[in-house]
Amino acid sequence: MEHLYLQVADRIQAMIEKEVIRIGDKLPSVRSLSKEQGISMSTVFQAYYHLESKGFIEPRPKSGYYVRFSPRRLPELPSATRPVKRATDVNVSEMITEVFSHHGPDLLRFSTASPSEPLLPSAKLAKSMIAALRENNGGLIYENLQGNLPLRRQIARMSIQWGGSITEHDVVTTTGCMDALTLCLSATTQPGDVIALESPAYSGTFQLAESLGLKVLEVPTNPICGPDLEYLDKAIPKFKIKACVFVTNFSNPIGSCMPDKNKRELVRLMNKYDIPLIEDDIYADLYFGKLRPSSCKQYDRNGNVLLCNSFSKSLAPGYRVGWTVPGKYKERVLRLKLNHTISSATLPQAAIGHFLENGRYEHHMRNLRKMLHTQCLRYQQAVADYFPEDTCVTRPQGGYVLWLELNENINTIELYEQALRRKISFAPGRIFTLQDRYTNCMRISYSNPWSKAVDDGLKTLGKLAHQLMK
Amino acid sequence: MEHLYLQVADRIQAMIEKEVIRIGDKLPSVRSLSKEQGISMSTVFQAYYHLESKGFIEPRPKSGYYVRFSPRRLPELPSATRPVKRATDVNVSEMITEVFSHHGPDLLRFSTASPSEPLLPSAKLAKSMIAALRENNGGLIYENLQGNLPLRRQIARMSIQWGGSITEHDVVTTTGCMDALTLCLSATTQPGDVIALESPAYSGTFQLAESLGLKVLEVPTNPICGPDLEYLDKAIPKFKIKACVFVTNFSNPIGSCMPDKNKRELVRLMNKYDIPLIEDDIYADLYFGKLRPSSCKQYDRNGNVLLCNSFSKSLAPGYRVGWTVPGKYKERVLRLKLNHTISSATLPQAAIGHFLENGRYEHHMRNLRKMLHTQCLRYQQAVADYFPEDTCVTRPQGGYVLWLELNENINTIELYEQALRRKISFAPGRIFTLQDRYTNCMRISYSNPWSKAVDDGLKTLGKLAHQLMK
């Protein structure tokens, strides 16, 4: 006779397989299932542990157990990348602009790694904006060059979560994270310099490098633990790398999250060669696990790490409020900020400062993370269901995107063009490198809440991929 | 027996000299004075014409006659500038940051060429911000790359005033005018290129040039009609100038306003050498005369003029809303904007768009211009009263600043340091050039409404100048 907990587990597994309970659904609490079924709580616990070990369900902190996708259909992880080992002149194609300039209400966008409107606290942030208007006499006057003080204080306070110990004096606000990256790269490099990026890396960083006249070395990157540091250690002297720009947590598009020991090692390398790390930490707050992953900045004793972040992925892309903790480059960054924009807009900073001060951010982020995690699982499941069987897909532990590696006969630029005709967009892999690579890869954002339209859209993409294989 | 109109004029002149009627005061209307004094309206007219011809009073459109300063005490105009004729490596001193980083409520600031808070429509713009929140569902989402459409429409409509015939498709919004200049200079130059500026020119433009790795040629500039175009015609080929950045209307700090024929000639030169003119037109709406002066952009048929402007001098510096009409460089500017900031903040653009759509801008600007004109006259008078007799001062027809040329024994950096100890700041002439010039010059902003404190501050400056002469 089978153990009771196994009977319970099998029943739940069957319900999951028949999609009676669906990906992202919450399971009953241990207590309530125990009551309903007349079994002990420890039996329920055992059943849930069993299902968890089989990969069907997963616990979430302070919330309970949730259905995740079925492991037997779990696609493979993409392999670590092997970009060509030379620094490349940046010559980013029209394609990036093409991909990101398509708008329109009838377009189903899997292309943007930023929050969709339904995920955001529009009404509550509007209240903070109205408070900011009142408290700043309309916000008409130039804000302090370094940035709104209450906001900087809140940013400094939040650093506890990633192990930082910064004060408001260390923070410089910016017009979004791209502006932070622009200022930090301008402060640390000269035209003609070589910088290192992950491969694949965010297309915007390539474009920024191009506009600053920089060359880029793409570093092999593992979808789990990020850039290959042994490779980097050799590459820095060999290619005379002057700065690294890495997304250390939930990198875009590959989803890697550097383990703490890699972060520590990366900072050690920066100190060894005395070059700056521009740490783009924009996805770190969107973790699905128990705790926010740490940032390299935590290990920075010499001021070589320039941490960059913003509220664009978490709260309000349209507010254009970002910041940097630029370490020993602070004065240079401030000078450049003065030269390029004088100061950042007063009200958006003050409104977000107010939102944070009133504890609204924590509450919002808890919800956002839950929603994103659920969406991530549902999208992963749909990819497993609809795409060709040999499709590999990342299992990100945070952020907004899945990275798919399709059969090498599939050209995702072709797929993109066909999808666009059906009013669906995504980001083809080719735009995340300067080399002729990743042409069978694609990035899918799970930012849009799950819906019939999303399901149909992914089904269509899968069908098109099947057709292109032939 | 003297003419009746002369008796009337003499009486008014005496009242002005005794300061019964003060600088900036409005005179009675022709009709009311005619009634009160029992004289014909034509006599009053003759009296006013007479006083105008003597420089005591001046007419203002749709408003009447106002007292201006007395011509017998009118200081000389500064002479046309003669900067050294070579391109200079930009190496802008700490002084600029020093001058503009001094804040604090107890500092009397004559240093900033931007509106003081009392001049701005705080409550009405807050209403537009609240409307923008409502109409844009909180403004959380990225704005269109090119900029908020209603705002661009309003900007295009306003171009009628300067003879432009642009549409919303020609306009790109930016994070203030400095951002517009940054994008336009980045779009048209390479590091190492030489650009031409007025001399003296806005310190921020030198700093921007430095941060972009550009060299600067300073063009001799006349305080009335702007840059010397004959000189420029020779200098462009000689110094291989790649772009000009000129403030064509009410230039900062020298206050020149290029006549239409010079503007036309400047555009002709740009076409002759096929180089771009970046036209910083940020002060043009602050005219004291009947009409807004035209912009070079009006004469641009080839797309060589990149017009830059913002609402920072007229409405809300803290909103950081500017724009450019970049002619044939539009695609390049858009690409750079995408790379550096993705888009400009949603709500500030929408709020200003709403403010303009509802006709509030015109009304506000009429008041602002009147207030500034009055303040300009009062400050000019105070300079004439308090500063050494050989002080030359500009007579700007718009904008925020007076440019003073003091006795050549006076070093205005020394004056600045002494003034700062007395909690008064202004901008020493040296920061408006890369050369060792203008050390006996200073820029005084009349942005602060006239008050006892302002009067005392200018008196103190004058006293310090007298002391430094000895």
From TrEMBL, chains A, B:
Cofactor section: pyridoxal 5'-phosphate
Entry keyword set: Aminotransferase, DNA-binding, Pyridoxal phosphate, Transcription, Transcription regulation, Transferase
GO molecular function, one term: transaminase activity
Protein family per UniProt: In the C-terminal section; belongs to the class-I pyridoxal-phosphate-dependent aminotransferase family.
Keyword DNA-binding attributed: yes
Name this protein carries in UniProt: HTH-type transcriptional regulator NorG
All copies of domain HTH gntR-type, residue ranges: 2-70
